[in-house]
Amino acid sequence: MIVEQVLENKTNFKADKDSEKSIRSVVKSISWRVIGTIDTILISWIITGQVKTAFSIGAIELITKMLLYFFHERVWNSIKWGRK
Question: Domain DUF2061 spans what residues (predicted)?
């Protein structure tokens, strides 16, 4: 069922590009990263019981996750598997 929905709603890059401006993607990426970091801070606070430690972990996680994602994307851009 999910696969059928994906196949029915399949779009190409041009259609996707025309439907959403780049700035929207940037804002969505930033908002998602903020949500992820808040989640990490809350989990860290629950586990450690220390707000300062939780914020320290969240700050480090914010930077490392963005760097890891950047390199992850660069590696995937070099892989031809699954492309036409």
Answer: 26-77
Closest to 34 (Cα-Cα) out of 78, 26, 53, 4: 26
Provide DSSP, the chain: -HHHHHHHT---HHHHHHHS-HHHHHHHHHHHHHHHHHHHHHHHHHHH--HHHHHHHHHHHHHHHHHHHHHHHHHHHH--TT--
pTM metric for this prediction: 0.66
pLDDT of residue 55: 97
CA-CA distance, 72 to 47, in Å (whole number)? 29
State how far the Cα of 72 lies from the Cα of 84, in Å rounded to an integer.
20
Q: Would you tell me how many other CB atoms lie within 10 Å of the CB of residue 66?
A: 13
